[in-house]
Fold this protein.
Amino acid sequence: MNVFIYIIKRLINAVPILILVSLISFFIIRLSPIDPLSELKLNPAISPQTLEAERVRLGLDLPLYKQYLKWGGNFIKGDMGVSTSGELVSDRLKERIPNTLLLTGIVILLTWLVGIPLGIYAALNWRKPADRVITVFTSVGMAIPSFFYALLLLVFAVKTGWFPIGGLTSFNFAQMNIFGKIFDIIHHLFLPVLVLFTLSLAGLQRQMRGNLLDVLESDYVKLARAKGLPENKVIYKHAVRNAINPMVTLIGFEFAGLLSGAALTEYVFQYPGLGRLVLEAVMKSDINLVMASLMIGSIMLVVGNIIADILLKLVDPRVTME
Amino acid sequence: MNKKIIYTILILGFFVFWGSSCLHRDVIEEEEKIAENKTEEAIFEKIKPPFEIREINGREYLISRGDVGRYGGAFSNSTIGEGPKTFNIWNSKDATSSTLAGLMFEGMFTTDAYTGEVIPKLAKKVEIAKDGKTYTVTLRKGLKWSDGREITADDVEFTYNTIIKGGYGDTSSRDVMAVDGVMPSCKKIDKYTLEFVTPKTFAPFLRMLGFAIAPKHILKPITDKGIDEFNRFWGVTTKPEDFVVSGAFKLKEYVPAQRVIFERNKDYSMADKNGNLLPYLDKYVVYIVGDLNNQVLKFEGGELDILPVRGNQVARFKALEKNSDYKMYNLGAGDGTTFISFNLNNRKNDKGKYYVEPKKQKWFNNNNFRKAVDYAIDREFIVSNIISGVGMPLFTAEGLSSIYLNKTLAKGHPQNLQYAQKLLSQAGFSKDENGILHDKEGNEVEFTLMTNAGNLERESIGVIIKEDLAKLGMKVNFKPIEFNVLVGKITGSMDWDAIIMGLTGSALEPNNGANVWYSYGSLHMFNIRQGKDAINRTNILPWEKRLDELFSQGATTLGFENRKKIYDEYQQIVYDYNPFIYLYSPLNIYAVRKKYKNLEPTALGGVIHNLEEIYIEE
């Protein structure tokens, strides 16, 4: 079947999922006893008229279902509404998304460039010291909580003074030349990238190693070896090619995690990304902002899955698009 | 198999050592420090003569009261949270936006950070007519906006009559200025003179004339387009060069979630004693940090030059101060208050049901009962245990830094359980053989104490109070609940027994708390009257009535001494009748790098009230 029609079909299927996600998130946020106006209510300087005006401005005076319909209608039209502080949600997202993409993009690129070869290497050196060392390190990587690890590195930065304490750029960034700017960003990105890289590398490397070990046991690899193919060809043409399939599926999830995967690390490093924005929005029950980010997350997941499926088709001719 | 274990241990060991070496220095001997914090002298009663005005090149400059410094350098501060929402100061609703935009726009008057008095800033002088209603303000000559235009009475008249009175931006400033719902009038007399007339004498008005003045030539076209257009104007996405300012600093760069950078305004209207134009600093940087821990780390890492030090950190910072490049300043108690309050409401709701159980109404409305609770609480213990001694016991409705503080009450009284017991038995309460307190009718005294969950200080206070009151035989069920639910109970359903709460205060103007003390006020939380109860002012207690009178007198009386008497009496009433039982005020302690000179921290102004005078030592 045509790839194009396939994509359309999948997108149509995604609509009910998105509606369901939005319904559940909207009502969970709204039914929780968090009132965006409670801070104002306890401020002696705020008059009841001002409070009422705020309620109307945020649409809190409408019944719940009307609030949802109003939000949904606007969202479809591409209008994500205003945050509780009055700015356009789309503006707020726009200023943060590139920063998060920069961080997660680098991390994903690095983990795949290092993780896959390392997985292959470990599988080929199965039970040799090199494999063992890698295994121990990846076990630590998987076990250590990202939050704690990030904090440790932050303390490290404070004590040594080798790295800036959070943020993305230095205060004199605007006056630097282009090389200075690139170096400054790398300097700031190093620690957050290290945290995320260590954590996701562990998972990816182990997955690749496991897959390849399975495949290396299979009959067709034994046959290839038996018929005297060079070892290089056996591994890279036959074994790795087959072991990579499950990894392709993972790409779909990685894609979904592009925007939301780094929230905790972002928070610890005070990284000006989406995660920190959304975390603060949840605490303040800034419903439009939270909804927008949840919806973007769900859309990314759907799109990521479609991309993964298409990639799978490209990698593996046995897969059909039915 | 063995090898694997050895590898694991080796690597784990590496992580543990690394982690512990990082963390080691943070755990420093706590014990000796508590006493030390207390002995440190707070900065009080430092007075400087008022600004002198000197004419230089045809412009009238305010002359700095600090030493002559040198130009250059930057000062890095920080703000916790999301950062500014707007730089339009007339539309800022949150403290961060107001503070940051406040650097760029000045008012006719300001508060003297040393004395708390209202002193002229853009204005030269003010004359108040004998009737106490007419204010004639004269502006300084030759004041300049940062685009070179002169600041004149037109700008003031426009700001007051169009922006504030017209309801542009945040309307709460209008609400505060209105006297019985009527806004004072404003009329331009000539290029430098204006006349304000209040409908009746209204004491807080002079301080309110400190509102930021807007450049008419820039904002007039915007206000003509309507309120929405104005409210969006000068938001966080505006290009820095588009701002036209009157303050010491001008926006240079705003990087969302990272920092705000201000640069020196070359046209600022202050100079030092030698006639050099202020400010000295080239840049003022405000980092936007997400939480307290990050703020501390950034200070320790040298990125910040100033840090508000919290209670549990004071000991550590104090210990490290000697060998470091910072100095600590104790600004004394802040103006916020923490208190416990009982629900005195004895009315019924619309469905004919009492808000508070009738037997509890009797306890809570009994003056002796509240006084007994007041005497049973060990405030010293709360201060030394919950905020590591970095605070002061509080007994008065005005905070300890308030210029209206009733000093005779401020010392308060120590915990006295015998006296508390005596008060209770006078009121007919008695303890049974198990030590449980009963009222006259024989009901066991048991009530619920609530506070907002997540506020660790208040949660720990609750536990201490529960134990203190258990000594009197009261059974307190302490229940922290979600902040929003609590606010809903206080201002809406009113079904609560006792709460631990806090309110922000004002060190300069008791009338800002009028909403709490008027018997019909929307924050009169110990006895809220809503709907027809507020209009009819149903069953007002005698002392509530006296508070109503005092607050309306206070607002319409001029002169500090006269008002002081009125507000002294209000504090006495609150002290005697205990609608709020005040607990403590935390101290404001700051660490600032030593290289900055002309630092004159005051209790009222904080550390950087004279930012334009601060310079870096050679």
Q: What stands out?
A: Residues 178-216 of chain A form the longest helix (39 residues). Residues 26 and 68 of chain A are 7 Å apart (CA to CA).
